[in-house]
Write a structure and sequence with these properties.
33% of the residues lie in helices and 14% in strands. It has 103 residues and is α+β, with helices and mostly antiparallel strands.
Length: 103
């Protein structure tokens, strides 16, 4: 069974107000999934309606701030295996964001 070497673990969360992309992502998520959750009886239709009304009220508040769910980026290599990208210029993701840039 392979053992792993220490890995770099980076928690990532985005935050922003009503005019930001992350707030728009949350709006699209809640607008779509709230109804699906009610249809599957995960929440009641009454709760779905209340959640939607509450979200819309926050979306219309210019001082509102949304924090995204936490995502964890993990980078590591199994012992005895060669990393797939050794040369930073060969990384197709380079430049998209700092977590994928090799320094």
């Amino acid at each position: 069974m392979p053992t792993t070497v220490p890995a770099e673990v980076t928690p990532t969360s985005l935050a922003g107000g009503p005019s930001t992309e992350i707030f728009e992502w949350a709006h699209r998520f809640f607008s779509t999934h709230t109804q699906h959750m009610a249809d599957k009886a995960i929440i009641s239709h009454q709760e779905a309606t209340a959640l939607q009304a509450d979200w819309i009220a926050h979306r219309e508040n210019p001082d509102a701030l949304y924090f995204s769910p936490l995502v964890v980026d993990v980078a590591g290599v199994l012992r005895g295996q060669t990393p797939p990208i050794l040369n930073p210029t060969e990384n197709p993701l380079r430049g998209r964001n700092s977590s994928t840039d090799f320094q």
